[in-house]
UniProtKB/TrEMBL annotation, chain A:
Residues 3-147 form the Globin domain. One of its GO terms (molecular function) is oxygen binding. This is Hemoglobin subunit beta-1-like. Keywords: Heme, Iron, Metal-binding, Oxygen transport, Transport. Pfam families: Globin. GO terms for cellular component: blood microparticle; haptoglobin-hemoglobin complex; hemoglobin complex. The keyword Metal-binding applies.
UniProtKB/TrEMBL annotation, chain B:
Involved in oxygen transport from gills to the various peripheral tissues. It holds the Pfam family Globin. Heterotetramer of two alpha chains and two beta chains. This is Hemoglobin subunit alpha-A-like. It comes from Haplochromis burtoni.
């Protein structure tokens, strides 16, 4: 099981309590779709993803970015049981959505970069390490039910 | 994923903006890498201080970033211009090339932090490709 110090719990909690989901969610997904264009394969129903401009103004992308970001809330509320908490979502991503789990890391890197851009120097090396640890645990849990 | 003409232009233009903060970004990125990816500390066991505030870390980060800046100016022939550095990393330093990706992530993160308005997704894309090609050129002599 993953161990979280009091300091780590507080860092993670602070990041989310000050998070503008409606801004960060879309930005993270847009960045992922632009920087790693092969990730667009999962969004053929989203309409115009033809270039960076189209992606960044696409309302379906924005809505989905917000949805995915809120998906992290359940990890925040269940820090001591992330693996079990994401079992159902892992099955969904594997059996229904058929998402290559390598993509989870790509999106989590983009999310880290967007949040770093927003928080600036408040995103200290220690905060970065803790947040990346948190995302790594979620990513691992999301990949657990693939077989 | 080789660099297009557009990628090269984007990288050069962005680097012109980044240049004044180059040393700071390099030092910051190296410090973050050592903190967030502790396995990378194994390459610096000979230093006394591996914290982000360490003078050794800041100096070396600046050195790395300067070399990257030089590579930007030689972007049309990365393999050729990085030949000597590749030999250094292959035969003397023997850094596992997986770590180039880790450092690239931290450099990108710092660029996003220092230049939030300029580091758009499109700029991020070209810089990511550039750093990937740089890493490839750096690992050329490994085997």
């Amino acid at each position: 099981m993953v161990e979280w110090s009091e300091n780590e719990r507080s860092i993670i909690s602070n990041i989310f309590s000050n998070l503008d989901y409606n801004d960060v969610g879309p930005k993270a997904l847009v960045r992922c779709l632009v920087v790693y264009p092969w990730t667009q394969r999962y969004f053929s129903s989203f309409g115009n993803l033809y270039n960076a401009e189209a992606i960044s103004t696409n309302p379906k992308v924005a809505a989905h970015g917000i949805k995915v970001l809120h998906g992290l809330d359940r990890a925040l509320k269940n820090l001591d049981n992330i693996k079990a908490t994401y079992a159902e979502l892992s099955v969904l991503h594997s059996e229904k959505l058929h998402v290559d789990p390598d993509n989870f890391k790509l999106l989590s890197d983009c999310l880290t970069i967007v949040i770093a851009g927003k928080l600036g120097s408040a995103f200290t090396p220690e905060v970065q390490a803790t947040f990346q640890k948190f995302l790594a645990v979620v990513v691992s849990a999301l990949g657990k039910q693939y077989h | 994923m080789s660099l297009s003409g557009k990628d090269k232009t984007v990288v050069k233009n962005f680097w012109a903006k980044v240049a004044p903060k180059s040393a700071e970004i390099g030092g910051e990125a190296l410090g973050r890498m050592l903190t967030a990816y502790p396995q990378t500390k194994t390459y610096f066991a000979h230093w006394s201080d591996l914290s982000p505030s360490s003078a050794q870390v800041k100096k070396h980060g600046a050195t790395i970033m300067a070399a990257i800046g030089d590579a930007v100016s030689k972007i049309d022939d990365l393999t050729g211009s990085l030949s000597a550095l590749s030999e250094l990393h292959a035969f003397k330093l023997r850094v596992d090339p997986a770590n180039f990706r880790i450092l690239a992530h931290n450099l990108i993160l710092c660029m996003g932090m220092f230049f939030p308005a300029d580091f758009t997704p499109e700029v991020h894309l070209s810089v990511d490709k550039f750093l990937q090609n740089l890493a490839l050129a750096l690992s050329e002599k490994y085997r």
